[in-house]
Design brief:
Elements (H helix, E strand, L loop, with lengths): L6 E3 L4 H11 L3 E4 L5 H6 L7 E4 L9 E4 L2 E5 L4 H6 L1 H6 L1 H8 L4 H4 L4 H7 L6 H8 L2 E6 L2 E6 H4 E3 L2 E2 L6 E8 L4 E7 L6 E11 L5 E9 L6 E2 L1 H7 L6 H8 L16 H21 L4
Parallel strand pairs: 1-3, 2-3
Antiparallel strand pairs: 4-5, 5-10, 6-7, 6-10, 8-9, 11-12, 12-13, 13-14
Helix pairs in contact: 5-8, 10-11, 11-12
């Protein structure tokens, strides 16, 4: 199916793009990689009158280490996140998640900022970025602001992003002991259930802190607070990790689907939580 008719707009700067968003309001959509937007338009789920192409805006892509965090431009491709040496060194879980997105064509067109803004509940980035404690830089007509991942993802395809704001950067604290584990749908590659985890250890070698996020159990990624509490202060061995991962789906009510029932999702959540935590813990000593 073909999309409905639209007017294509190509701003030369971020401020021009924000001005067009402000001018056209709900009739406009931003286009970056387009791998979420274009299929929705073809199915007539979205029928914007204006497409504002920001894919070629300057100074909005690239990855750098700054202090104790990674700064990733919103237009950075999934493929570049996946292969980046600095990401692999300082946040390997993020590189793993990027490498599990779609296929090679998708990874070489889709952008991290587009994925974050779209907030698909079956997407990989929101899960791992929540686990990593990422912060998003948003720019609108009134300037820029920063918002933590914990406060950004609100519900199904819903974020704290205002209609005339643009995601410009993703800031990720260094987390060398981080990992991502995913059970994908065999046809689409979208996650059925996934887990992002990051851990630190204290002087005695026990878990000093843990951030664990689950995908596929709600309309947005969620923190597995019961898992985090169960791990903190404990040695990160096979038994304690297995016990800690047991409540990964606690309090969740996932949707039933033809491929995976709610009960099945809750069961495999414990499996993939354990895998992600084990992989993160293994990196504490690597």
């Amino acid at each position: 199916m073909y999309p409905a008719k639209f007017e294509y707009l190509l701003p030369a700067s971020l401020q021009e793009a924000i001005g067009l968003l402000t001018e056209h309001g709900d009739d406009a959509k931003l286009l970056a990689g387009g791998h979420s937007l274009i299929p929705s338009m073809k199915l007539r789920l979205l029928e914007p009158k204006y497409l504002i192409d920001i894919g070629r805006l300057p100074n909005m892509s690239g990855i750098r280490a700054e202090g104790d965090k990674l700064v990733i431009g919103a237009l950075t491709l999934h493929a570049d996140v996946c292969i980046s040496d600095v990401v692999r060194q300082h946040a390997p879980g993020l590189a793993e998640a990027a490498g599990r997105i779609g296929d090679g064509q998708v990874r070489n067109r889709g952008t991290i900022g587009g994925s974050v803004a779209h907030a698909d509940p079956n997407a990989d980035y929101p899960v791992i970025l929540l686990a990593l404690g990422a912060t998003f830089s948003l720019t609108g007509p009134n300037g820029s602001r920063a918002i933590a991942a914990d406060d950004f993802f609100l519900d199904l395809f819903t974020t704290a992003l205002q209609p005339n704001e643009v995601v410009t950067e993703v800031q990720v604290p260094f987390a060398p002991a981080s990992a991502y584990a995913k059970f994908p749908h065999p046809a689409s590659g979208n996650l059925v259930v996934s887990c992002g985890a990051t851990v630190t250890k204290d002087a005695s070698g026990n878990c000093a802190s843990a951030r664990v996020a689950m995908g596929g159990l709600a309309g947005k990624p969620i923190r597995a607070s019961a898992v985090e509490s169960a791990l903190t202060g404990k040695p990160l061995n096979a038994d304690t990790i297995a016990a800690g991962a047991a409540p990964a789906a606690e309090g969740t009510d996932p949707d039933d689907a033809l491929f995976a029932t709610a009960d099945y999702k809750r069961h495999i959540a414990t499996v993939f939580a354990r895998q992600a935590i084990e992989a993160a813990a293994a990196r504490l000593s690597s």
